[in-house]
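Example record for the data management plan.
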Amino acid sequence: MEQKLNIYNSLSRTKEEFKPINSPFVGMYVCGPTVYGDAHLGHARPAITFDVLFRYLKHLGYKVRYVRNITDVGHLENDADSGEDKIAKKAKLEQLEPMEVAQNYINRYHNDIHKLNVLDPSIEPHASGHIIEQMEMIQKIIDAGYAYESNGSIYFDVEKYSKKYNYGLLSGRILDDLYSNTRELDGQSEKKNSYDFALWKKANPEHIMRWNSPWSVGFPGWHLECSAMGHKYLGERFDIHGGGMDLLFPHHECEIAQNTIAVGEKTINYWVHNNMITINGQKMGKSLGNFITLGDLFSGNNKILEKEYSPMVIRFFILQAHYRSTLDFSNEALQAAEKGLNRLLKAYDTLLKIKPENSSTTEIIEVQNKCYEAMNDDLNTPIVISYLFDLTKSINSISDGKEKIDAKNLELLKNIFDIFLFDILGITNETADNHNNSEMLNNIIDMVLNLRLQAKTNKDFTTSDFIRNELQKNGIIVKDKKDSFEWEIE
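Corresponding structural encoding:
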């Protein structure tokens, strides 16, 4: 049965919101981090969301080129063409070269998201390494008559663009509202209108990161870099552009405007946005005292946290909500996710010990079809997880002898976990307490229980009871069966 992924397009304004991806080759560009600080909980959601999309497209047989950029220049403090470059400011504070700051946080970002089992993208370009491509794109926009120079800076003329095209197509914003609601900021006076955005900024004398250009010594605008790098590695027209909901406006709105003038009216088929994570109902922010880095989560070293959480618990917690819905973080929610994940992994361990019978009271094929239907319906990972939980009931019933399963259905049941839980959802087969289910511990417990089985055979019940009681003291529950045994960790 051929599977087709239907995915929501943020550009859609009609009932036909979900459309299948039909091209055998998929180009996917996702806005990566601005590397001036440690990765935080908010970074985890887009990384995991688009990792699952990447994994699923590949599983369905698409040839995928996944580009995730690194913003290491041009992202100013207030996102409105004024203030210091975020990385340059950090470099001054730490008395380092800007690229030294960027590389340090890139390394730390990679380390954190690799713990979350996020796959590396096909290409990870840096904005600072593509200045020429950005200048070439600026020149195209100037030549088309939709950009103007002011004091050595180049700005995109949003008002002129809106006379022919729709600035606000993605976000639903109206230009008149933008004009009345945009406050005047430092550096805005050189623009024709406050909502015009920078394609190139002339550098102040104290600005560290600067390049020569036909217009001034300066640096590219934040919005421009993604357009230029996306076109370089995926072509002028490609399938998917993704990122967090916070990038929908102005970043992605500005990208659409740039692309339209530089290339044509439609350059990207699907705009895909994951929603935000809140902390106990509040937006995460340092000023609110609820800022949590991934390192904090892994170590538990944050006053908000009751304990440390394993990377797989965090990944599972994020996938329990649909990527387009708001996800609220709390210790209670993470601990519930931890219990749920452990339940699934224990069921899988039980599954591996089940021996097939000649007949089956359990049919699995329908569950597999439902899992595919859920994934094809805009990556509905919570529904897939609910089906996996349903299967744990069947596994326990089969293990207890209440249901029977033949070899064909047993293999299919194992494949569902292998494909959906481990391959597509990207969960690694380890519980939150990694030592509990390590291969070494499993082997040791099996060895001890085999010694106990031998003692029972020899009618040495004193030794048999001693082994069982000592294991129970350490949280290992033994279930005796005819000529065999099962065990689990409480």
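Summary line stored alongside the record: The CA atoms of residues 452 and 466 lie 9 Å apart.
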